[in-house]
């Protein structure tokens, strides 16, 4: 499909926000000064996030309670579909992202080269990122890449752009702060073209949420997504390892019995558990994979 004419392109910058009144005003003003149309999704903030955003010139959609970032993103997607946008840009509301990077992030979408563009902190631009963040982000990225089958360098980046096709086809069902990983699985599932663009980030503000708890929530969702979308990887691979370990241990038990005429009951029981559990897991993975292959993509959640 040819790119839409420049004058007719509709681009919206959406900002999921929760208790961000310290930063949201200046961010919206910078975006408006650059000519961007801005939507702030106030996810049940207890402070003046919505009021400050409106005064700064943003359109605001308010949630009655704090439902989590995933729900805020779904609201942004629904609003984008309603408007018939050519591109939707998501950017965090805590000022860690540089608004001047928006043009580069949205460019592949407007050029019809990608349906989802990930603004990557690890794709070439050097930023002062705390080491504990780098280690955690890389671990989550490896897990998400392995599970989704779609490799990117920064699976947890909240700075992204989406085409109209992505807005219309991606359905996000998760909760909390794991929506970025879910996007990767959804993009792979729907066959969307994905690109990465290097961005710079700033980490001068204090962390609002417990990073360990947040990482555990993301890991929990990634495991759920792997089980749902790649049952062979989630069930059959561990099952194969378990079955192999059980057979190896069984050989050892037999050799011990031949040498001593004494049955190592504990090891024999462990052998049975490993073999039975491995075979069950292996067959469950194969059966679910077969069922999944028979289900049309359009009917999957």
The CATH superfamily of the largest domain is identified as Spore Coat Polysaccharide Biosynthesis Protein SpsA, Chain A
Beta content: 5-15%
Rg for CA atoms: 24 Å
Q: Which segments are poorly predicted (pLDDT under 50) over 5 or more consecutive residues?
A: 1-7
- Distance between termini? 27 Å
Q: Can you name the CATH architecture of the largest domain?
A: Alpha-Beta Complex
Q: Any idea how many domains?
A: 2
The amount of helix comes to: 40-55%
**Averaged pLDDT, please?**
86
* Alpha plus pi helix count: 10
CATH C-level class of the largest domain: Alpha Beta
CATH domain fold name of the largest domain: Spore Coat Polysaccharide Biosynthesis Protein SpsA, Chain A
Cα shape: elongated
- Would you report the number of β strands? 7
